[in-house]
Amino acid sequence: MTKEALKELLEAVAAGETAPEDALEQIRLQPYRDLGFAKVDTQRGVRQGAAEVIYGAGKTVDQIIAITQELLASGEKSVLITRLSADAAAAVGKAVPLFYDPTAKLAVAGERPAQSDTGHIVIATGGTSDIPVAEEAALTAEFYGNRVTRLYDVGVAGVHRLLDNTALLAEARVVIAVAGMEGALASVVGGLVDCPVIAVPTSVGYGANFEGLAALLAMLNSCASGVSVVNIDNGFGAGYLAGMINKM
Amino acid sequence: MTKEALKELLEAVAAGETAPEDALEQIRLQPYRDLGFAKVDTQRGVRQGAAEVIYGAGKTVDQIIAITQELLASGEKSVLITRLSADAAAAVGKAVPLFYDPTAKLAVAGERPAQSDTGHIVIATGGTSDIPVAEEAALTAEFYGNRVTRLYDVGVAGVHRLLDNTALLAEARVVIAVAGMEGALASVVGGLVDCPVIAVPTSVGYGANFEGLAALLAMLNSCASGVSVVNIDNGFGAGYLAGMINKM
Amino acid sequence: MTKEALKELLEAVAAGETAPEDALEQIRLQPYRDLGFAKVDTQRGVRQGAAEVIYGAGKTVDQIIAITQELLASGEKSVLITRLSADAAAAVGKAVPLFYDPTAKLAVAGERPAQSDTGHIVIATGGTSDIPVAEEAALTAEFYGNRVTRLYDVGVAGVHRLLDNTALLAEARVVIAVAGMEGALASVVGGLVDCPVIAVPTSVGYGANFEGLAALLAMLNSCASGVSVVNIDNGFGAGYLAGMINKM
Amino acid sequence: MTKEALKELLEAVAAGETAPEDALEQIRLQPYRDLGFAKVDTQRGVRQGAAEVIYGAGKTVDQIIAITQELLASGEKSVLITRLSADAAAAVGKAVPLFYDPTAKLAVAGERPAQSDTGHIVIATGGTSDIPVAEEAALTAEFYGNRVTRLYDVGVAGVHRLLDNTALLAEARVVIAVAGMEGALASVVGGLVDCPVIAVPTSVGYGANFEGLAALLAMLNSCASGVSVVNIDNGFGAGYLAGMINKM
Amino acid sequence: MTKEALKELLEAVAAGETAPEDALEQIRLQPYRDLGFAKVDTQRGVRQGAAEVIYGAGKTVDQIIAITQELLASGEKSVLITRLSADAAAAVGKAVPLFYDPTAKLAVAGERPAQSDTGHIVIATGGTSDIPVAEEAALTAEFYGNRVTRLYDVGVAGVHRLLDNTALLAEARVVIAVAGMEGALASVVGGLVDCPVIAVPTSVGYGANFEGLAALLAMLNSCASGVSVVNIDNGFGAGYLAGMINKM
Amino acid sequence: MTKEALKELLEAVAAGETAPEDALEQIRLQPYRDLGFAKVDTQRGVRQGAAEVIYGAGKTVDQIIAITQELLASGEKSVLITRLSADAAAAVGKAVPLFYDPTAKLAVAGERPAQSDTGHIVIATGGTSDIPVAEEAALTAEFYGNRVTRLYDVGVAGVHRLLDNTALLAEARVVIAVAGMEGALASVVGGLVDCPVIAVPTSVGYGANFEGLAALLAMLNSCASGVSVVNIDNGFGAGYLAGMINKM
Amino acid sequence: MTKEALKELLEAVAAGETAPEDALEQIRLQPYRDLGFAKVDTQRGVRQGAAEVIYGAGKTVDQIIAITQELLASGEKSVLITRLSADAAAAVGKAVPLFYDPTAKLAVAGERPAQSDTGHIVIATGGTSDIPVAEEAALTAEFYGNRVTRLYDVGVAGVHRLLDNTALLAEARVVIAVAGMEGALASVVGGLVDCPVIAVPTSVGYGANFEGLAALLAMLNSCASGVSVVNIDNGFGAGYLAGMINKM
Amino acid sequence: MTKEALKELLEAVAAGETAPEDALEQIRLQPYRDLGFAKVDTQRGVRQGAAEVIYGAGKTVDQIIAITQELLASGEKSVLITRLSADAAAAVGKAVPLFYDPTAKLAVAGERPAQSDTGHIVIATGGTSDIPVAEEAALTAEFYGNRVTRLYDVGVAGVHRLLDNTALLAEARVVIAVAGMEGALASVVGGLVDCPVIAVPTSVGYGANFEGLAALLAMLNSCASGVSVVNIDNGFGAGYLAGMINKM
Fold this sequence. Notes:
Eight copies of one chain form a homooctamer.
Chain A (H helix, E strand, L loop, with lengths): L2 H12 L5 H9 L4 E2 L4 E2 L3 H5 L4 E3 L5 H13 L4 E5 L3 H10 L2 E4 L4 E5 L10 E5 L5 H13 L4 E4 L7 H5 L2 H6 L2 E6 L5 H8 L4 E5 L11 H8 L6 E3 L5 H12 L2
Parallel strand pairs in A: 3-4, 7-8, 7-9, 9-10, 10-11
Antiparallel strand pairs in A: 1-2, 4-6, 5-6
């Protein structure tokens, strides 16, 4: 509530136009429902312009169903659920209508939103093994109404595969670079485009990769400008942010 | 060079409109000047929409002067130099016209570009000690023509200082959250706004801060959506990326 | 044994009021029973004001039963057992009367102690996935006779959920802040209250969370005063310490 | 501002007893002064029961003087400044009346507060080299009106030195255990007392100590109950928290 | 395409000998087949002198079969597949002719290439447990036509076993030193031979070995000259590089 | 072979007393049997005064049986096998006579050696969960003919349990201190005795224990003199070294 | 004080042979002098068989002088001071008679003790740069009356230098292996001798040596039996322990 | 000495052709001079085909001079000294004829060897700041008689600078890729050439670069085949190994 809005409200109270009780509600109305184990943010769409998302890992199936139903009941048409195992998805799918993608381990409860044609997000991966993370990003971006082009297996050890797609990259408003191992894709892409690059390190690799640490550090140290980084394997975060930028 | 441009060029050669030698030049023209110790990218403005930047750390004063002069000679009106010590700035300033900010350790050679009024970047810091990094971001964004508002010392241990400025934050097209210690500022800001948040961990702190590692990990693990992270103390990177997004 | 007590005892020996053998026993009486694999502290209640606790992880079911029976036989009315798997609890429950909470993986052998109304401990979590650790803390504090209020899923990315409960926080004599991911909850809570805050980092998260390291470092670097930290996922330690402070 | 207080205020506005402008001020009155580079919390004493503290590291002398003067001007009788170098202290001392302790690198601007006799904090160190951190804790606790007893150089490699002081430890309401190297002091103390132990790892040591990491990890893994940990070398944090608990 | 080749092509276009469309193809001909989830490099043999290799980990069986068939169809006589589980090998073996080594978890699809007698690679291991990694290196080197001698279990704690084989080592053109635990084998071998030594740290060990980190750091710090290091457990990388050097 | 021995041998060859072939054998006789996958040191007893040991982890059952049989055939009366799973022990036990201890996961093939009464090794643990590692140490020391006293569950959080056994500790020629969590046992023991203390960190603990790293670092930083450290969970190494010192 | 001694004392009190006050003194006599900043252990020679040592780092010159004088006054003939800078040594030398070795940064106050001829300690280093740490070990061992042979610069990259000295190594009762970089010396030595090997990692090296971490981890993972490890650069600890073992 | 050589020697002794004393010398002749603080390898040229090198860091000027003079006296025409500070070089240069390169901090004592034209080593750097490490590699390779081409400042963020030099890279027999920050250069180069690539991570960068760790991990995880890695900033190691391979 901005200072101006608050001032107006107080003046309305002083003028007798608004009852103190109602003003109290307006100032302190809880923008969430309290389920005990979760405080569900039912007005996040209003406040932040995008519906609440359920991070499935570490929640029981019953908790996921309850939160989903609460959100659908509060008026959300569709709810995104990330990090949902196939088993959990089967169980949740019995309680609410559910689309589930087993590669990305991502579900949409309720209606699947329509995609928009505004702008263009390119999602590139270093290798085939990075695809699950890339799909989490792609499906998230599509959930929020963005157009996505997938450009998979263009790692820097065969840089001609990437250079062959510079025209495609040039059309993007945002690029998501998903790579494990040495994570160099973000830097090379960052040098080829003039739009924001969101780098997603993946845990693909072994040994001195240390579960994605190698790619993470490489991306944080990128010598290309315009690159920022999200958590290891955080396809959702990249897809969400890319959509936010794409719509600006 | 896009596929279409290449096709046109080849047709011009076939038609005798362009000599093979000229086509060769056009295809392979080096978009940089080779100084031996550096390959200066004199056409980056054309390719990526923003002029080349000189990262001052680890370069000798002579190298910095030579690269700066090469860029100014190639038509750049102003050149940004980051991580420049006061001593080095004094020396460089004798060779080329130089604006220098000792807090941000950042210089502009040639003319200082005019700021634009398009959009709005808010730069918030957790504390007073984070200001040098924040100023590197602010001056970088201003160099590229963005309007910047500084909101310093609004760390989460006194969260009312931040909440008191939600109206300001709501107007931003991009927010840069600069914080050391526990780096929580990025998460709290990320939950308050619906625009991209660029998180900059700083090396401010001691002990288990491990030179900024604590803030870096915290920011990468932010539970708020729309947050991405750049390297520790990388004010330049945040300012550059924020400007890129602000102008979309 | 204090210097004064020792002096009195020696004078009693000199006066013939106490036999040397009895004095020997008083000075050296072993305050534990030796089971070979464990030295059970049967007089800890006398010495430290709180009964012995069994850390279940890494002990066999037979060892847990033997220690529990030894403690109950020595006069303890109830024994707390932490980190007990559901399978082990089922086995132990056949040998001794047992209350078991599967979320917290915590058991009470013998009678469940009554709660007191003295003071008030608030236990807050960043998210739903942190609840198992929070319940370990809550049940531990309740075992030692403290009143506990649970305030779950109030993470800083939706800071209004926390601010909406400042009145509740203001009543607390101690707050336990349980959070994974970026662990920022402790700092924000620490800035809102004027009582001790015990921060419990959890291993909830993934990637650069590194099994709770991110939250641990963040909490150790909290810019709020009055915050101290226990081990990752150490709900018991937080609950025990909170009870100790609450009763002061 | 609690819900009840807000309700009363709104009713006063409705009743015409309070003007909307005044209510606005009361709701939104900034509890800090904005110096640009710092937002000084001039009402923290009211809100959190203890005056604002200035963390000296990373601030310029001019900034420290300005913040100190602002706090003194707003009614604080004394201001604590930590991590202040001897050189900076000399400069600050020219602008405001200043007590400075070179061992603890801690200063008090304005009047030094009187100590209280309520309760008792014991501060123990493993060795002589840990004394600077211990003194930061001791002087902080004394600043907030607590009685402190120093018990220095009682490390566990000569455990009789500690056991010889069990009577002293038994009288404490809080113990601060300050130790570098292997940090075992906290565990041994924790097993001897029935009051809260605040463990402060120090960076004293070399090699595999890794600047205090060894002691930090040891203290976090303490097998004694009732122990919590603050950041490496964070004497201030321990002293502040100990005072908070001592006064309960 | 070298500058000279490009110039000739352009002159041919100017002379009408080559159609612009054909030149376009020659310049931009994609040296890979795009399967969507993978961009298969069908001309790597031409470009880099060695056929494409499939890294099996993280790919589905269907993906591995499709890439293998694409490579065989494009003219490769044999395809190397590394990190292939026994189960996956059984499934792939139904689709294409396959040789599989369960110790090295390495397969060859199509014909097994003949070995050459040129030069000589010695592969030494510190212990018996390092053999799986050593065999990955050995079979890779043999796949590319090199002669390999295995020298297993010659760790430095019984240095006579190694010294007894100095004559064998002296004949090698390249030595691969495979060792876990303290990884000292590389340094001792490096001091005995005058040819390149490729060090392969393995994850064999426990505790402070940290999954191969101890051996990796030791090998990177080798005081012997002529030693370089590949990733932990990267037998393939060592075998490939050794073959490359052996054939020079 | 010492310089003197070699000189004598050469003089015998010059004098015709020893044939060159025999001298060659004496100089180069392989003190091991080569099984291909292992080079079994059949004369280690002669060279180092203690029979060869088989580290079971990472070896196949067939390899363990073959090495054991080779050693028994070469004249060893008993062979120690460490880190042997219960399943592997069952399989090996069918091929050679075998004593197996499931707690220590340690086996003796052939005859179990008699214990000696010379000297005395005390093995202390911090807790019950450290017993498996302690038993590996105890059984190893006993295998090599040493007298061992077990002193389990004497962690520093109840330091009276340890102090109650100072007489026992005073009789030891070597003490092995086995502890996880904060690993403080080694320092306290080191301050109580005047004999060597071998510290064995264990992986017992959780969270910031990082699989034994906390205890390892604490023990390396022990402020007590006379303490040295072996690898995490390395009961064998401690038992072997303790026996070596005990017999001096 | 053992149980038996205590019993006898109490019986003497009961018999009137010892006054309670005297018994009190005997039981509780502080075996240290309290200087406030240090509790000096003046009877450690009695209790542990070796005089107190002063760790110079982190102590002021005044503190070192006071502790040294206290020890000399209490009857010690000589006092060892480690980690003493040349400047501090000059200052201390004005207050007490002092021998100082600038390479080892080690001093002896009072008389230098005579060396013994009992047994034999060999101290080997990997390189010339490890000598300062080795000298700290050597001078410490000599201070406690041991015979020491120095064997410097015998690193494993030229293993013949070490093998050439096997006769010398065979005579040792203890070997101290001092090495930085990859720390392999300990393993090779461990395989050549049948006496305890104390490994001292040094911080000699650069890059992935990480201040001695590489050597430390290598030594902890040594595949040779009979090797234990002290802290990085801890020459004193190794020399002290070696002397303790040598005299058994 | 090979088995065959030894057999021949022994037969010569038996035949009276060689005296036992001479044989002794031949077998055991110490291939080094013992200076006490160093064992100088005066025959390494014979044994390993390349003269001894002096690693200057951590040695005193006197030690460096003594070793250099010993090597020159033993017949070496030139001696390479690495990691030599400018001050030390000035001092050494007074004792022996010395060429010194201040950028690489590398010196040649005695004559500078002539370069060869055999083969070709290309040394590429990511940036200007990596040049000191690259020059250490270049001058080392030239010292051992190799032809070197420098290709500086071709980092992947401007990949056209590298692609523009593919012809040059194609001519190389070995490529050394020197890069800090994200270290991606090695991977991109590795994908362009069919010769061995030696990757040298540098400590150029800041923040999450962690003194070269980011580049090191990236290079170890390179998805390109034919890449191996040396220690951070180890220009010498790369230059030495490259020369070894170039001459094969």
